[in-house]
């Protein structure tokens, strides 16, 4: 037997996320004209079930809301900000922002993922006229890609502080407000490794006293019967999730920020977010797209995912993410 490559299984999860996003876009849940350029053979992909489409929508809407608010505050206060997406996979957020109302506020956008993932993404970007047009200029790239404000960087987030410094110093300006996005990635690493990543950023930005925000999206609360099914499904695909173990409730998710140097932290389940962040007419619109017979089943699924967010540095705008 050849030992299965655990990291290869983790990288595979990007395909799930991208195909789910493509499906939600094709079914009209969300608007994303870019994702089809990043999914291989996009036109041949089968749509995902309604439950997955709704979940993908709620997750995206939650992170969109936090990012939008961050950009709005930066618009008013500093005129410039940076966003760093860790474990970015095939995410299209850069193109959505770069083609949106806050494009001038975004000074730098960095994505980090395993080299296998960044190489593939860099290739897709170079192949797509539409993605390339938004990047503009001369697109350089192999395992990394640099074009204008956009930087796609290969790296293993478990690399430790010295390697993180080597990767990011020179690209990130420590005097600009910076938002970190960890969308379904910290769960794949042991807590000591993810804490080290959060601490590195807190340290990097602490001297300038510039606001540092972070958003984490994650599965959690996996102790009950449904959670155990989620864990065993992942295990059958050789995906282990050591980063889920300590996070049994929302308090624990918030505590992660406080114990790594952030000053404030909030957490909410996707179930709560669907109920309270999404406008009634938007929920109405979604309910017309596809038949979803069991709201209880949807809520059970959404209770096993959470968004948490924290803010570090004095003088930071406490109104960011000021829900709940
Ligand atoms: N954030 C994207 C999204 O939400 O669409 C992708 C999510 S996907 C479930 C997880 C991503 O995290 C994969 O692209 C995987 O390669 C990346 N990842 C997991 N562990 C990583 C690590 N140690 N270093 C770098 N990337 C990692």
UniProtKB/TrEMBL annotation:
EC class (word): transferase
Keywords in alphabetical order: Methyltransferase, S-adenosyl-L-methionine, Transferase
Catalytic activity: [phosphatase 2A protein]-C-terminal L-leucine + S-adenosyl-L-methionine = [phosphatase 2A protein]-C-terminal L-leucine methyl ester + S-adenosyl-L-homocysteine
EC number, as in UniProt: 2.1.1.233
Identification of the protein by name: Leucine carboxyl methyltransferase 1
Family recorded in the similarity comment: Belongs to the methyltransferase superfamily. LCMT family.
Role, per record: Methylates the carboxyl group of the C-terminal leucine residue of protein phosphatase 2A catalytic subunits to form alpha-leucine ester residues.
Binding sites annotated in the UniProt record for S-adenosyl-L-methionine: 59, 87, 156-157, 183
Coiled-coil ranges from the UniProt annotation: none
Organism: Sphagnurus paluster
GO terms, molecular function: protein C-terminal leucine carboxyl O-methyltransferase activity
UniProt record, GO biological process: methylation
């Amino acid at each position: 037997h050849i030992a299965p490559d655990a990291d290869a299984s983790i990288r595979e999860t990007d395909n799930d996320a991208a195909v789910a996003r493509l499906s939600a876009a094709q079914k009209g849940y969300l608007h994303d004209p870019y994702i089809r350029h990043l999914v291989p053979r996009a036109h041949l992909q089968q749509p995902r079930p309604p439950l997955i489409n709704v979940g993908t929508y709620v997750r995206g809407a939650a992170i969109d809301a936090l990012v939008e608010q961050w950009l709005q505050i930066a618009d008013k206060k500093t005129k410039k900000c940076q966003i760093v997406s860790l474990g970015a996979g095939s995410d299209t957020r850069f193109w959505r922002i770069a083609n949106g109302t806050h494009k001038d506020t975004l000074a730098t956008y960095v994505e980090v993922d395993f080299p296998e993932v960044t190489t593939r993404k860099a290739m897709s970007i170079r192949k797509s006229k539409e993605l390339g047009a938004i990047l503009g200029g001369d697109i350089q790239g192999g395992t990394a890609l640099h074009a204008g404000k956009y930087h796609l960087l290969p790296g293993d987030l478990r690399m430790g502080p010295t390697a993180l410094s080597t990767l990011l110093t020179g690209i990130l300006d420590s005097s600009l407000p910076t938002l970190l996005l960890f969308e379904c990635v910290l769960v794949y690493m042991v807590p000591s490794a993810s804490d080290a990543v959060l601490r590195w950023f807190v340290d990097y930005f602490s001297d300038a006293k510039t606001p540092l925000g972070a958003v984490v999206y994650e599965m959690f609360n996996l102790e009950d019967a449904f959670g155990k099914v989620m864990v065993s499904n992942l295990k059958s695909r050789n995906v282990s999730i050591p980063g889920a173990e300590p996070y049994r409730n929302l308090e624990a998710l918030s505590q992660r920020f406080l114990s790594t140097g952030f000053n404030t932290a909030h957490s909410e389940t996707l179930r709560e977010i669907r109920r309270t962040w999404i406008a009634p007419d938007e929920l109405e619109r979604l309910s017309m797209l596809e038949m979803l017979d069991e709201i209880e089943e949807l809520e059970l699924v959404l209770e096993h995912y959470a968004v948490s967010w924290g803010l570090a540095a004095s003088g930071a705008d406490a109104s960011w993410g000021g829900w709940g």
